[in-house]
Amino acid sequence: MKAIVYSAYGSPEVLKLKELEKPAPNQEQVLVKIAYASINSADAKLMRGKPFLARMAVGGLRKPKKQILGSDMAGTIEALGAKVSQFKLGDKVFGDLSAAGFATFAEYICIDAKHLSLIPAGVSMQEAAAAPMAAVCALQALKKAGVKPGDMVLINGASGGVGMYAVQIAKTIGAKVTAVGSSAKQPFLQTIGADATIDYQKQDLFSATQSYNHIIDAAAYWPFKKFAPLLKPKGRYVLVGGSTALLFACMLKGPFFSMFSGKKYLTLMAQAKKQDLNYVAELLQAKKIAAHIDKVYPLAQLPQAMHDLEERKHRGKLLIEMV
Questions:
Q1: Other beta carbons within 10 Å of 111
Q2: Which of 37, 128, 193, 292 is least crowded, fewest Cβ atoms below 10 Å from its Cβ?
């Protein structure tokens, strides 16, 4: 089978296309022929080995022990272990495998059946592959913020993978959503259903007179303290992605500022939860949210896809097709 492997941390050029032996499932695993995988900012961090703690996820301080990246996937079951009863041959499945060893940037994967969910009828392989990590992260951020119907929600980084799902899921809850993005991404923000948009390149976000019950920050361009004037009393700011330095700053200093301000400054460490993924699948099937896919690359072009991801010029998700 073809797979993209890396044997050293670094830029996208460390990613190499190789031919590997096709795996065989053990008794509790299934063999999945992967159709599509999506890439996330977490993949770029693991590729570069930065921050240093990211190396723990792939098991190597000097070089990665797990040499195939990729968390999100959608594909078809080709073989079943003897103890697998919840799936059958030919089932279409998807999942976030970040807690199960990664390795979705390959044509095949053997994985414990408990990490997978069925793709609902009416949901395409591309939609399913785009959703697991980003949409679940968005859902968990909104839960942590405590978003309710009628709440005013500001979403920074709204054109990225997590941000676009956060806008749409917040709308299904009944919130009023303001989406923040660059000038080039304003039409996209309107397309995904934002009630209002802010072009941070043309106006000072922090001089706005509007205040919000909740702020979901999926970009971390600015320190969390700058958002304080935009939060209503007892409002909640949840940081879910972006700059590692700003993420750690919020994690360490947020609780202190929360104690004395009445507002909450929180960080989210998203987890791959099948219950949340199944809820996202229901929203996709009901057409209440959509997977907006910016570009699909063949497997061999994964290095270019990583470059594009790191430049943050995309709108929505970037997918890898196993061709």
A1: 22
A2: 193
Mean of pLDDT over the chain: 95
Q: Select the more confidently predicted residue: 56 or 38.
A: 38
C-alpha–C-alpha distance, residues 181 and 201, integer Å? 8
pTM to 2 decimals? 0.94
Q: How far apart are CA 143 and CA 216, in angstroms?
A: 11
Structure tokens at 299: 């497997």
- Please report which residue ranges of 49-160 form alpha helices under DSSP H: 55-58, 125-130, 132-145
Instruction: Locate 307 and state its tokens.
Output: 């470059």
Per-residue CA distances from 33 to 82, 94, 206, 320 (Å): 18, 11, 48, 14
**Angle made by CA atoms 144, 148, 151, in degrees to the nearest 5:** 105
Tens of pLDDT along 184-228?
999 999 999 999 999 999 999 998 789 999 999 999 989 999 999
Beta strands in the chain, from DSSP E residues, in sequence order: 2-5, 16-19, 29-38, 72-80, 92-96, 108-112, 117-118, 152-156, 176-181, 196-199, 212-217, 231-239, 264-267, 293-298, 317-321
The pLDDT-based confidence of 242 (bands split at 50, 70, 90) is confident
Over the stretch 54-87, which tens digit does the pLDDT of each residue have? 888 888 889 999 999 999 999 999 999 999 999 9
Measured at the CA of 197, the angle between CA 171 and CA 251, to 5 degrees, comes to 75
**Exposed e or buried b for every residue in 77-110, given b needs 16+ CB within 10 A?**
bebbbeebeebeeebbbbbbbbebbbbbbbbbbb
Asked if residues 117 and 278 have their Cβ atoms less than 8 Å apart, the reply is yes
The percent of residues above 90 in pLDDT, for the chain, comes to 87
DSSP notation for 116-136 = -EEPPTT--HHHHHHSHHHHH
Nearest of 207, 248, 250 to residue 229 by alpha carbon: 207
